[in-house]
Structure formats: C-alpha cells, structure tokens
Amino acid sequence: MSDEKIAVISPLGGETIAARGAAPRPESLDGMTIGEMWNGDFKGDFTFPIIRELLAERYEGIKIVPFTEFPYSTIRGTAEHQRDIDAQMLALAKEKGCDAVIAGNGG
C-alpha cells in the first residue's frame, strides 16, 4: 500500500444562500458615521483615503470609521468562517455607531 495522498474536490461547490435585496438608502449622508469594510483586494489602502476626502467635501459633519478598524471581509474560507467574520463586522459597526458602511471600493 502506498503512502501517497490525493486531494478530492467536491464538484458541488460551496454553500449557497438566498439573495437579499439591498438595504434602503439614506437621503443624505450629512452627519452620519460611515464604516469602511475591505476584503484586501483592489487597492483599498489607496482608494479609501480618496473616497474619505470626497465624502468629507460633499457631506457636512460626516464621520468615517476607516477599514483598519474592522477585520478583513473575505470570500475565502468556509461558509461558517464567513458568517463569523460577518457577525464580528456587524457588531463592530454597531459598536462604532456606523449608520452605513462602504462594503466595496471598485475593481
């Protein structure tokens, strides 16, 4: 008998979830606290500071909670791991008083 090991990959893919609609959008971001959530892709370390500047110019009293204060949001890992990260991010956004979050920066 050989000690050789092989990897088996399921053709079924990952766990799927039902699609949900987008949350209602506020009429204005004036005076709101906005969180930035980043998955580590597409140069968020470069684009988020620019987005911050543009939001500050456009909306009075806006406060930004930078992506560095949140864990990375990622599609990697198991569905259970993703749910755990999502729960951590939601709890942290509430703790930091976020009224809304930017969950993508392009790409």
Descriptive report:
- The protein is of the alpha/beta class.
- It has a domain at 33-102.
- The protein has helices at 44-58, 79-95, and strands at residues 33-36, 63-65, 100-102.
- It has a 3-stranded parallel sheet, with helices on one face.
- Strand 1, helix 1 and strand 2 (63-65) form a beta-alpha-beta unit.
- The model has no long low-confidence stretch (mean pLDDT 86).
Rg from Cα: 18 Å
Mean pLDDT: 86
Q: How far is the first residue's CA from the last residue's CA?
A: 49 Å
Number of helices: 2
Question: How is the largest sheet built, in terms of strand order?
Answer: 2-1-3
Low-confidence regions = none
Q: Strand content of the residues, in percent? A: 5-15%
The largest pleated sheet is described as: 3 strands, parallel
Features:
107 residues; alpha/beta; 3-stranded parallel sheet; 2 helices; 3 strands; elongated
How would you summarize what this structure contains?
This protein has helices at residues 44-58, 79-95, and strands at 33-36, 63-65, 100-102. It is α/β, with parallel strands linked by helices and 107 residues long.
